[in-house]
Amino acid sequence: LCQTKEQRILDFVLKNAVRGDPQSVIDNIDKYCSQREWSMNVGNEKGIILDNVVKESNPSTILELGTYCGYSAVRICRLLKPGVRFFTVEFNPAYAAVAKQIIEFAGLIDKVQVLEGSTGDIIPQLKKKYEVDTLDFVFVDHWKDKYKPDTQLLEKCNLLRKGSVVLADNVIVPGAPDFLEYVRNCGKYDCTNFPSFLEYMDEKDALEKAVFRG
Ligand SMILES: Cc1ncnc2c1ncn2[C@@H]1O[C@H](/C=C/CNC(=O)c2cc(-c3ccc(F)cc3)cc(O)c2O)[C@@H](O)[C@H]1O
Ligand SMILES: [Mg+2]
Fold first, then answer.
1. CA-to-CA distance for 193 and 177, rounded, in angstroms?
2. Is the CB of 84 under 6 A from ligand 1?
3. Cβ neighbours of 145 (radius 10 Å)
4. Residue 92 CA: which ligand is closest?
5. pLDDT single digits (tens) 129-143
6. Can 58 be counted among the known catalytic residues?
7. Which atom of ligand 1 is nearest to the CA of 170?
8. How far apart are CA 202 and CA 74, in angstroms?
9. Complete edge-to-edge strand list for the sheet that includes strand 135-140
């Protein structure tokens, strides 16, 4: 019945997680993807680093680039105080549909707006159409060749302010070399690298935190 891996992940969550309990949703996605089918969720090792960066930023307006199944949306939103706004962008309708159901099951759908479309089209709409002033936190985890252009687009659209945190997954594998070179050398960011491991594997990976200097 479940034709796609993403539908099988959703099915496993619906069957095994506890409705309204974000941690059980995260734990069950990690369990399925480590025991049955690998999947490109940020995972628990890098997820703990993500948790810590989110907690220290205490953000009110958050943007995620690349929702996929909603694992990091649930991971981030479970830490947020009431009333904050979390936007996540996904251009694959099948993935967006799975993500919405997983976010809803976790009980977090009121905090989350899944914006269906390409980041290149949606980022320029955030101020006028979605009433965003500036972004406190951006989690970047979509196609790796889009990291740099979309970071530059965020700058161009004046969505970053002094202290805005841009946190990028996979800067070792699959890697985002042009993004790393840009944020580390353009002079507009203070960068920190967080070595970790690729989700569900023993391979090395890392997150890069780039704080906009304003
Ligand atoms: C411009 C635009 N607009 C909107 N949505 C967009 C968009 N570009 C992509 N998306 C969306 O975001 C997700 C894409 C995620 C891409 N992530 C990875 O490729 C990835 C790969 C690995 C990996 C590591 C080792 C391997 F051997 C193989 C794969 C690990 C990871 O953690 C990854 O994130 C996916 O849901 C896609 O539809
Ligand atoms: Mg990733």
1. 13
2. no
3. 13
4. 1
5. 999 999 999 999 999
6. no
7. 32
8. 24
9. 112-116, 85-90, 61-65, 135-140, 160-168, 204-212, 189-197
* Closest-CA residue to 140 (of 47, 65, 52, 42): 65
Determine whether the shortest distance from the Cβ of 198 to ligand 1 is under 6 A.
yes
- Atom in ligand 1 nearest the alpha carbon of residue 201: 25
- Measured CA to CA, the distance from residue 172 to residue 188 in angstroms comes to 22
Look at the chain and count its residues: 214
SS3 129: coil
Annotated catalytic residue 141: yes
Report pTM: 0.99
Instruction: Identify any residues that bridge with 114 across adjacent strands, giving them in sequence order.
Output: 88
Residue 150: name the closest of 87, 213, 211, 89 by CA: 89
Least distant ligand from the CA of 68: 1
Average pLDDT of the residues in 26-45: 98
CA of 139 to the centre of ligand 2 (A): 10
What distance in Å separates the CA atoms of residue 88 and residue 98, rounded to the nearest whole number? 13
**Is residue 1 pLDDT above 90, yes or no?**
no
The per-residue DSSP string of 142-183 comes to: S-GGGHHHHHHHHHHTT-EEEEEEEEES-IIIII-HHHHHHH
pLDDT at site 2: 80
In the residue annotation, 169 being an active-site residue is answered as yes
> Above 90 in pLDDT, residue 160?
yes
Sign of CA dihedral 93, 166, 63, 16: positive
